[in-house]
């Protein structure tokens, strides 16, 4: 789950990222945590629909056979309804598939979705702070590109992995 948090956090943090048009830090933090809340609600709703489908015996076999298709269609429709990008749709689909593969009950699934959303939110917050610091420091312009951002993401992964490894 830890590697999923890092991968999804990096993808969601880098989508549409521009150094030139960065909003104020408070607006960026609001956007990050609103995005994490949307991610939690989307994955929780898909997992609740999955648990609801598993209750009925007549549709249980078909629901298991077409689980990926059902997850994908539901995640796509919810992301389009929320006017989110394709990265959000793919992140929701990957997280729902990973959580549902553990075969837990609905309360544990929602708890895992909350942990995953909080982890992605923490990662994006750290990444946003480091991007601001990199933007307003005296770093040469060629060093403000992708290699430095990937290096920063790796450092965040190491920092989050040490104390919170058992949690995630």
Brief digest:
This protein is an all-alpha fold.
Task: Give the secondary structure arrangement, pairings included.
Layout: H1 2-14, H2 25-55, H3 57-65, H4 67-81, H5 86-100, H6 106-135, H7 146-164
Helix pairs in contact: 1-5, 1-6, 2-3, 2-4, 2-5, 2-6, 4-5, 5-6, 6-7
What does this structure look like?
With 168 residues, the chain is mainly α. The chain has one domain. It is built from seven helices and no strands. The chain has helices at 2-14, 25-55, 57-65, 67-81, 86-100, 106-135, 146-164. Helix 2 (25-55) packs across helix 3 (57-65), helix 2 packs across helix 5 (86-100) and helix 6 (106-135) crosses helix 7. It is elongated. The protein starts with a helix and ends with a helix. 27% of the residues are buried. The model has no long low-confidence stretch (mean pLDDT 77).
> What's the number of structural domains?
1
**Termini Cα gap:** 6 Å
Please give the radius of gyration in angstroms: 18 Å
Estimate percent helicity.
over 70%
Class by alpha and beta content: mainly alpha
Count every helix, treating DSSP H or I runs of 4 or more residues as helices: 7
Unreliable residue runs = none
Work out the strand percent. under 5%
Mean pLDDT score: 77
Largest sheet: none
Instruction: Report the count of strand segments.
Output: 0
- Spell out the helices and strands N to C: HHHHHHH
The outline comes out as elongated
